[in-house]
Amino acid sequence: MMSNEKELRNQILNLVGLYYNEKLSRNEFIPGKTPIRYAGRVFDDREIKMAVEAALDFWLTEGRFTEEFQNKLAEKIGHEYAYLVNSGSSANLLAVSCLMSPLLGEKRLREGDEVITVAAGFPTTVNPIILNGLTPVFVDIYIPTYNVDISSVEEAISEKTRAIMIAHTLGNPFDIETILKIAKKYELYLIEDNCDALGSRYKNRLTGSYGVISTCSFYPAHHITTGEGGAVLTSDEKLSRAIRSLKDWGRDCYCGPGENNTCGRRFSQRYGDLPKGYDHKYVYSHIGYNLKATEFQAAIGIAQLEKLEYFVTRRKENFNLWYEGFKQYEKFFILPEPTPYSDPAWFSFILSVREDAPFNRTILTNYLNENLIETRNIFAGNIIRQPAYLNIKYRRVGELKNTDFVMNNTFFLGTYPGITGDMISYTLDKISEFIRRF
After folding, report:
1. Of these residues, 222, 223, 280, 286, which one is catalytic?
2. Residue 222 a catalytic site member
3. pLDDT tens profile 353-368
């Protein structure tokens, strides 16, 4: 870079820092007037400067920032490969779709095979199973960890079962050790949906490092954000090739954007029924998509990843403040518990209103939202009761009683780093006022 260009770039970035300090750095909480969000972006001038750096390069698709972010994320989680994509939902789609790749030979999944999952989760853990012509097998969850009921997993296995795909619910790891033993015993793939749990640990090892494939989401509600965005990770070379192809239109070529003939054999090979020497850049070995993210997202992701440990610490601190505040109300609420051997980077503070409480969830959450305190249910509740899923092909194990309980009684409050002690104190005061009515 010429000295004048470098000087201009530095001037621009310095002005970005000044703008941030003037416009974006102050967030005053006014009780009763400032909304208390359940989640949101937490950033400083570093993220904006990185986005501006990418804009100044104006290399809009994958480039140097994408490569750096992918490498740092893979190293952080503990996988060989990481691929940045446009959402966590796309990451989950790739995670399932790559298991159907012809690259896997006889080990590939085929239409009609079964994948064990939970009914109390987010739709995009289940949707890729359905969209690939596979059959979801729904099992129940435990309360108060809100994770998969281990006792029902082996019961769910049939001769058609080929994989397990489950999420670490709201940052609380599932019983990974037992699930891995089951997966090994029955030769099942484990897809680890880590979208709500980046930074969580199980037996002092980061979640997302256990499954043959794992996924992350970088939507603003999650542990780090790129606005929209996600990632799929693996250490398996064949799966890596399949993921890369599927996210890049299904093409066989592995050249990056703007690259040509890195293999040295672009016009000399034969593929399928194509003529020999057909341009490798236009050879398609998978029926794929374009799920790539942009350099802007990757640049922001680099800055966010640097803050991950701080974000995790703040989430734990906020969770503990909520827990201490709600302990006195255990008569009315089931409080959350971490899975044994886990250290969750809590996505949220999960509460269930007991069935014998003098109020129900809807009355309480309406009250909280009237006081500008955001709440959320646990996603789809019992997903097979949702309109879109009433007529899908599936199996279930048992009556999913805990899943139905969660659908009717459970909600959560935020733990994200933007929530302050004052916000939590204000909310607990409002909870106290509400309970005194009964």
Report:
1. 222
2. yes
3. 999 999 999 999 999 9
